[in-house]
Here is the input.
Amino acid sequence: MNLSSGAAVAGRSLADEAAWQSDSAKGRALVGGVRAAEQSWSFERIYDEYKTPIYNYVYHLVGNREQADDLTQDTFLKAFKALPKMDANLKLSAWLYRIATNTAYDALRRRKLIAWMPWQDLDHEPADVESADPQETIGTSELVHAALKRMPRHYRAALLLYTQEGFSYAEIASTLNIAESGVKMYLSRARHSFREHYRALEQGGGVAR
Amino acid sequence: MMCEQAEDFLSAYLDDMLEPDLRADVSAHLDTCTECRTELADYRRFDQVLAAAPRRAPSDELHTRIFESPEYARLLRRLERAEHGRAPLPLFVPRMRKAPAAQQVRSTTRHHSPPIWRSGAWRVAAVLALVIGSALLIKQGLLHSGTTGQEAPRTIAGPDGSAPLAAGPRAVYLHDGTLWSVLGSGAGLAQRLTPASVRVDGWAVSPDGRLVAYVDASSGRIHVIRSDHQSDQSIGSAGGLAMRANPAWSPDGTHIAYVARAAGGQTTLRLMNADGSNDVAVGSLAERTSTPVWSDDSLRLAYTQTSAGTQGVWSYSLDTKRSQQLAVQADGADAQAVVAELAWLPDPQQPGVTWSAHDRAQTTGIFSATLTGSGAPVRLTASGASYTAAEYTSAHGSAWLAASASTLSVIPATTSGSATSITTVGAVRQVAVSPDGSTAAYVTENDTLFIWSPGNASYQALSQVTGAPVWSPDSTYVAVQANGSILSVAIGQGPAARVVHLAQSAGATQLQWSPDGREVAIADSAGVTLASADGALAWLVDAHAAESPIAWTISG
Here is the structure.
């Protein structure tokens, strides 16, 4: 037991190191850009660099375009407000995803409160692509969207960060504010859940719960 | 290995995140089990499907919505104000410049930063470079520290090899068995303070704010860690005995007292030097022992012990190494009563303690007892009287502020003084005395916040108040939850412009001012938020609810 926890610690610190190095390389590239172009680093630069990944992530978290627009707007405005007071150790990328995650969670929570309905009824609402004969009308990306929508939100966030954003376990832990052992568990349950829902949809649109 | 077990590990197996032994077990199972092989193949396939799924991009309109929003305009104005010296001063602020009139005319569809902002880019870049440069140096220091030179610095890596947390006042709180720390004057999100291998239960910040002592519930050991996440160590010789209660630092920072398990399922108080040496049990055994309260001179401890359902009050002297029972019951007239607040009287020449006793949601009485003399506790309140709220202050010779149905009284904690009181509009639900002892903030049963300093009339400050008022360290502001918001009320500055909105809040909320009074940490059901005291900024630092009160540390 001691051996295994020791190895886990070593694994994390290496992953942290890699994450930090890639972040700082990106940071330095940005600063370099400033020097070359004189005055190009700005809130706009951050928006341009991160708008698509953040929007895509939020969209898959909430499963709705209009809401993804609103939440992406909220995410960037929150980040801009907070950025002037940023911590010396700030990892911009993980930090933005964390604000986006919290903003989306808040919205999902509000949606639950406003609708006065159990969480599952909303989180698992039928995808807009679901139709009478899913097998013929639904393409892979729609199946992905529908399967994601049926998953519990925490697992969904972990799976998206890992597969779509290429985050390490350490980065997911930092973004979702959980321990790395929690990431292992989240990803395991996320994959299991995604597989169940995807296969059910693939085989005829049955709603796996 | 059975399928049920293997299934749990398939995901980590795919990511190569299993220990070698476990990996070999899963691998052996896969060789024989078609079902698990299919599941693993599915995981691999779905990872690829997800990775290849088309990325959704926002519409161009979103740019306009953000950069031409009133909120963005407000942000730029705030940054401009901050630039002109308003506190609190951010780490960096883009320099604002009045744009020439001609440049102010711009098309509404233009998708660029206003010139007024872009002029600050150099400064932003400089600070960003500094931040990243410093981080780089710290990191390199970690990787190559202490290999040359005679006085190699002690390890500066954290328990998991990570860099020290950024210096400054940091808010600390507990959730999921971990202490989290967030820089008060920065927008960094909460970072792990304690190592992943421990499960924190009780904890306390040292008097100078630079260390945190905590109980690791999984081992029952006391640890001390620097508030910048460095040098975590298990201390004390009584390994595995600490209970799930907060340790108590002596005011001079030299000792730590804590509650420990003892023989026969009993509990006892233990005391050790802050470096873990001389760890000894003090006092007697009891079914339950409370976290002790230190005297200001760090020479005595006061605590309660419960046996056979009755709670008594005790003291222990570090000089004589003896414990002494000061009261057999918290309230001599009520065997069920328990101590709600316990404090040392201020006169070191005549040491004694004072406490409030609580039973069935009422304060049943306030008492004091000296260590010398008869030793019998003195009831400071009328026999049979009960109170809806009571709080002690050591200011002005020490006194209690106690509220009954329609009266708020100042009751001197030593028998020499006489009580003063005012009539309140309805029963008082909560009362908080300012740190300097000059003023009381109290909330009545109809949710109104009043401010009162003895000798003056009280005045109404806010309505629809839902939480307890919390004073700023300099006694000039009260932060309170009212109608879904956290508000800061300036005290004694006239009726106009007294209230500043700090943040939104959801559900039950607890507040804690930073030691320098510049930020307020807010914990509610939505998570932990830091707000600047001037109302300019509020940001969610943690989407998990705190499971403990928030405390502040200092590091660097």
